Amino acid sequence: MIELRGVSKVYGQGRQEVPALRNVSLRVEYGEVFGVLGQSGAGKSTLIRCLNLLERPTTGEVRVDGRDMLSLGPDELRVARQGIGMIFQHFNLFSSRTVAGNVAFPLEVAGCSRVHIRERVAELLELVGLSDKANAYPAQLSGGQKQRVGIARALAPRPRVLLSDEATSALDPETTRSVLGLLRDINRQLGLTILLITHQMEVVKSICDSVAVLERGRVVEQGKVVDLIARPSTRLHELCYPTSSTRNGVVSQGGRRVELSLVGEHSTRPILTTLARRFGVDAWLLEGSMERVGETRVGRLLFELTGPREAVDGALGFLREQGLTLEAPHV
């Protein structure tokens, strides 16, 4: 659905060159919610603008829904952009237009009939839960309601791709959860492919199927969110659990320190009790957490195993046989 191949973007020339993207490659599958996670200055906004050619890459290829975007002429590009919706951090609504008028705007530009516009606007306002706000103005809405208007407007031309540029970063946590739930519902109901950029780990854990971590204009890793979070050696795991490390300052008990990831059914099993009973080892719990990543339960345990070397080695072997993801450095 969306594919970037070796995309770089450089601003300026000569000594004034500023590289914003460096050889970025990523692929978003049909119907997927894909996140691009990075801090300010990582190149996220440049990347999303290169997707719809608001910025033209310096080098590389951009394909959306099978089209080579860089090969399109002005008229073809205008048509292609109708299939790419966009929602923004600060809503970008017309203050002089009602909610219905804002949603209708892209349909008016496209030359749709009044009957079609009226029916489509009513359908979209019902979808985002704002049917009773059709005649209200943006100044009369909360931040979450404004973002719902922005989502409805982006969906008006029936795009196959929806781009989200930090759409929840200006919202409070409860409203963020509500808007993310709406986006996930839209993804499922309409089969819409969504690419969102964010600096918020909670957004990635809540809604994204896959993620690319962007740092200084480079993709440092990408893959399924659950798989990356479950592996202690990944950058996403480090960002998700910034205190999880064998260097976290917890006093050692003189054993083998283990960081264990528990995904799905493994997260409900009494792992430490099983090790103690079966192998006669002591498990000193140092840190632990349990949460949901999308619809999957994911847990993390940091503990030390003490006891006879053979017993500790047997316990570690048992964990590996169970297919659990772990790191067991010597302490």
TrEMBL record:
Keywords: Amino-acid transport, ATP-binding, Cell membrane, Membrane, Nucleotide-binding, Translocase, Transport. Pfam families: ABC_tran, NIL. SMART domains: AAA, NIL. The keyword Cell membrane applies. GO terms for molecular function: ATP binding. It comes from the Bacteria. InterPro entries: AAA+_ATPase, ABC_transporter-like_ATP-bd, ABC_transporter-like_CS, ACT-like_dom_sf, MetN_ABC, MetN_ABC_transporter-like, NIL_domain, P-loop_NTPase. CDD domains: ABC_MetN_methionine_transporter. Residues 2-241 form the ABC transporter domain. PANTHER family: AMINO ACID IMPORT ATP-BINDING PROTEIN, METHIONINE IMPORT ATP-BINDING PROTEIN METN. This is ATP-binding cassette domain-containing protein. It comes from Pyxidicoccus parkwayensis.
